[in-house]
Give the backbone structure.
Amino acid sequence: MIGKANGARIGITGLGVNVPAKVVTNDDLAKFVDTSDEWIIERTGIRERRFATQDEALTDIARPACLQALASAGVEASSIDLVLCATVTPDMMFPTSSALLADQLGMPDAAAYDLLAGCTGFVYAIAQAYGMLASGLSRRALVVGADVLSKLLDFDDRSTLVLFGDGAGAVVMEPVKKGGFLGFELGADGGGGESLWLPGSGSRHFENPESFVKMNGREVYKFATRVLVSSAQKLLDEVGMTVDDVDVYVPHQANIRIIDHAARKLGFPPEKVVVNVQKYGNTSSGSIPLALADAATDGRLKPGAKVLMTGMGAGLTWGSGLIEWTEEMAA
Ligand code: UT7
């Protein structure tokens, strides 16, 4: 799916993030599996990540991010009429985490539902909210990207344990006077789904649930390096822009080698690329909003800046969104 914005100016007016307090270093994980700080840093760029405690579930991590996003937009919770939560680790399958968050935050008039698109979830969700807002069906949306993948990690599997972390981000989206989203490109390849999956998570395997993430790292690596480049290129072609028009590149934070490869192939100089995988690992749906927040903190999200976000992950899925940041948006 690919498309230019249809003339409606829909932007991000508030941004909030949150990570659990518990820091887990590479050395901490080396107590569980045969790995080392050197291997993890060299092969992934990850130095540490955050893990939720046993008592912390998805909505506990996401709620502070939502409150921060509402405060940064300067809007009342009750004015939100759509809550979308992209996650593969909801508190439970139902009620949805979006419905729980809408209730906890005080949004009695909001439609609320969860969206499952692996690590691409946040990009899918902002595209979905864009459509709802551009059509006039929604007037103000809260879009959450959050995961607590530590809950699904096998502490005996070094090929997955060292990669993931927990984190949440949220944005308020609504009509803006200037700038806003310029287009989206989204895709999925279920044929590659078993390269990154949770076998016992649904109706096919209830008798013998395997409740840990399984991954073919090399396959996902090949997929990731391909789609990060192709999705960005297709979207830029669609909106009639080039890499030179993009001021800030926000790729999914899975592995520094994947990010470096995509940036090099696309032609982004390092100063345009947002990288925070070293401190959070791969936070799945939380990854892109957490990276946006770091870009905001270091002053890169200036009014007029064109920001290209590209995610990829389980499904297999991928997706890009391009936005022009304006003064009305959080920075
Ligand atoms: O949102 C999408 C989520 N997933 C991803 O983005 C993952 C994409 N894939 C990757 O990032 C990389 O493939 C990995 C980081 C998972 C692995 O890096 P690699 O350079 O592709 O390593 P490899 O799988 O080719 O394995 C090389 C060696 C193997 O040992 P042998 O067979 O050569 O003896 C692995 O068993 O490294 C071994 N290995 C480890 N060694 C120490 C695998 N994991 C570890 C580990 N510590 N944690």
In short: Residues 35, 39, 43-44, 119, 158-159, 162, 196, 217-218, 220-221, 224, 254-255, 258, 282, 313 surround oxa(dethia)-CoA (CB under 6 Å). The mean pLDDT is 96.
